[in-house]
Give the backbone structure.
Amino acid sequence: MTDATTTADRTRTADGMTTAGAATTATAPTGFELRTPVEWVDFAMADEASENRIAHDVWTRAREAGLTESQAGEFTESVRRSVRHARRSGARHAAGVFQLYEDGPLTATVLVSVVTPPASGDVLGALTAVRQPEQGDGTWRRVGTAEIDGIGTVGRVHGIQDLTLDERTMRCAVMHTVVPLPGSPDVLVVTGSSPNVAEADELFELFATITGTLRLTRGEERAAPTGAPRADAD
């Protein structure tokens, strides 16, 4: 399977997908910009029709790659669940990659959401407020911080978790990055996830690299609407 860090090196330099979030004061960010690798697909999450178009494209590619109808169906349904979850969760932006390699498929998604912290202010705690796994079941999580150029210190939790999408539970590599929004009580949360847990270390590096491209925008810097790419630099 492809090395996730090599994939990240092909991130576009000037056409990150962007969206806007509501500002509560004049100094609060009015939007954000996030770059993803060139082979990633921006999710058009407006309705079920867009979900169907993505699923059809994945099915076609899976069959062309030699997967049986059963295998292609399972892969396509996994993609459909990811897109549906992004749409229903109210994510401000979402993108994903669905590729087939000789040793199997690679599925990964990144969601960007704006979250109001709980009364306790413990956003990381709220994100990981799930049933503690039994010792030795293979799940784990680590909470810490990271630095993003132009933004500063952000909170981060990553690990192997059991996620439930459409009543089906999958074990995934997951990384949440919590970014304070200056002048606003809310925070921006970037979540990367993938069921390819065997490549967890490479995926964590990829999610960290993508999140590291995050840029908050204000006023005239306001980014284009979701799904509208900026012009290529070259």
Summary: Residues 26 and 183 are 8 Å apart (CA to CA).
